Each structure stands twice: as C-alpha cells, then as structure tokens.
Amino acid sequence: MSQDSPDPVTEAAERLTRALSRVEMAVGRLRDRANAAGDSDSDRARLAEALDDARAREESITAAANEASEALAVAISELRQAAQSAEDAVEAEDTGNG
What we know:
The chain has one helix at residues 8-97.
C-alpha cells in the first residue's frame, strides 16, 4: 500500500464514526421529544386538576347564589306583606275617621 491511498480500515472507521455521530444526534432529538411529551403530560394533569377545582368552586358559588336567591324571595314576600298590612292599616284608619 502506498501512502497516497487511504487505508480501507481507516476509511471504514471514519464512516462508522460519522454514522455513530448521526445516530447520537437522532437519539438526542428523540430524547428531547420524549421530554417535551412528558412535560405535556404533566401540563395536562395540572390543567385537569385546575379544571376540577374550578368546577368545585362553581358548584359552591351556584349553591350560595341559590341560597341567596331563596333568601331574597322570602325577604321580598315579607316586605310585600308588611307593605300591604301598613296600607290596610292606613285605609282602616282613614275609613274609621271619615
């Protein structure tokens, strides 16, 4: 073999080194994708938990609003009764004085 012609073993080793480099880069990209997918899974879990919490708060707020609405309806009814009683008393007084 002359010094000008490359050694076939050296050429094969260089090709193998380049191929391994490409494989390592591909593995790195796949690892990055897997990590990103894992992050998405944890984000989904966190968002699902936040949604469940929001729904629980909504139910609590709805129950409180319903209670307030019922209390207002009772108060309005009592005020109407009181106003009617006061009006009846005024009319009775006017009728009795007239």
